[in-house]
C-alpha cells in the first residue's frame, strides 16, 4: 500500500482487535526523515505542543490495516506543512 508523500509508516497495532477487545486497529505515520529534522529544528516548543500546528505523527484507525492506512493517508494529505521560521533579515526584500 502506498503511503502519502512526506510520511513513513511508523507502527501498526491490531492486537486489541485480534484479542476481541476492539473492532479496530491503529496505524501511526511519522514524517519523512527530512521533514522530521525540520520539525525538530524549525518549530518552537510552543508550536510543537500546539494541537492545531504541524503534526510529527499521524494516528488513524481501521478494521483492516488497509483501511487504517487509507485513513492515515487522508489525515497526512491535510496535515500542515512545516515552514521555515522567519529571520530578522528574511522580509522578502532584496
List the helices and strands and how they pair.
Elements lengths: L6 E7 L1 H4 L6 E7 L1 H10 L2 H5 L7 E6 L2 H13 L17
Antiparallel strand pairs: 1-2, 2-3
Describe this structure in words.
It is built from 4 helices and 3 strands. It has one domain. Helix content is 34%, strand content 21%. The longest helix has 13 residues. The protein has 94 residues and is α+β, with helices and mostly antiparallel strands. It has a 3-stranded antiparallel sheet.
Oligomer type: single chain
Which band does the percent of strand residues land in? 15-25%
Number of strands: 3
Number of domains: 1
SS element count, helices: 4
User: What summary fits the major beta sheet?
Assistant: 3 strands, antiparallel
Strand-pairing-aware structural class: alpha+beta
Radius of gyration, taken over Cα atoms and rounded to an integer in Å? 16 Å
Query: What would the average pLDDT be, to the nearest integer?
Result: 93
Shape: elongated
Unreliably modeled segments:
none
How helix-rich are the residues, as a percent range? 25-40%
Order of helices and strands: EHEHHEH
Placed side by side, the strands forming the largest sheet appear as 1-2-3
Report how far the terminal alpha carbons are from each other: 45 Å
Amino acid at each position: 500500500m502506498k503511503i502519502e508523500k512526506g510520511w513513513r509508516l511508523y507502527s501498526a497495532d491490531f492486537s486489541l482487535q485480534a484479542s476481541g477487545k476492539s473492532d479496530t486497529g491503529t496505524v501511526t505515520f511519522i514524517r519523512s526523515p527530512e521533514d522530521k529534522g525540520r520539525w525538530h529544528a524549525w518549530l518552537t516548543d510552543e508550536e510543537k505542543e500546539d494541537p492545531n500546528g504541524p503534526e510529527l505523527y499521524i494516528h488513524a484507525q481501521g478494521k483492516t490495516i488497509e483501511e487504517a492506512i487509507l485513513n492515515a493517508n487522508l489525515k497526512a494529505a491535510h496535515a500542515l506543512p512545516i515552514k521555515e521560521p522567519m529571520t530578522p533579515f528574511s522580509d522578502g526584500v532584496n
